[in-house]
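Example 291.
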Amino acid sequence: MIEFCGLKLRHPVINASGCFDVLAAARVFGDELFEQFPFAAYVSKTITLRARAGNPPPRLWESAAGLINSIGLPNGGLRAYLETDLPALAAALPVPLITNVMGSTPEEVGEILDALEAEATVAAIELNVSCPNVATGLDIGADPDGLEALLHHVRPRSSKPLIVKLTPNTADVAACAAGAQAGGADAVSLINTLRALALAPGGSGAWLGGGSGGLSGPAIRTVALAQVSRVAQRVTIPVVGMGGVASGADARDLLDAGATLVAVGTESFRDPAAGSRIARELDDGFTQIAH
Ligand code: SIN
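Predicted structure in complex with succinic acid:
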């Protein structure tokens, strides 16, 4: 059993936000999904105050050992989450729910936290200050002082554990983590995607409808390891490590670098059962794992 921000988790493997749609997966896999749920806690896709359509297609580009996405945080908005998704998640999820949220201003974030405060199903909140695919996505998250000020503003609005999802697209990720801790964050999670660009064949400009995107997958694993290690040496709050985790050995590396939990992202698109497999490999000591 792992203790994380007051939550008791079966193992240290959770999903990265936006990389496992549990309600869609349930439609495909049925009740079996919940009987053998791949993650020790479930992190929702980012919820914003108002509904968002997301970025125009194309939204994905496969690169060598990675995936560039420019999704743009499509979601039905806070009200639809509260009225539709949350009751469905409350009825089905066998593990604690961490709701990921983003606001364009501190006031918006505060409004979302106020609304989630009364929801017992929400065990913790992950604050996305790191999306590279929306105009306001990482302006605050890349600035340690701005991040601390944001946390000071929103921290009093929630009694739930607050996890701050950090961007790797900054000069000093450890300073950003320290800013989050100074503002009252209970944990930090990293790394979100690295800003990246794919050009359309034939020289007609950017391939992705949103212009640039965010790179994830094995290509960013060593960057994640370096940043998690730096952050874990700087802060005293727990760290959730992620970035290209595809095996128990990858997860072990992040734990050894100082993470308390590990999140699986892109690998879940290839193997929806990756969370359970990685937790099992970690438990087995990953002796048989090939990269
Ligand atoms: C997206 O929806 O654009 C990806 C989410 C993120 O990078 O935070």
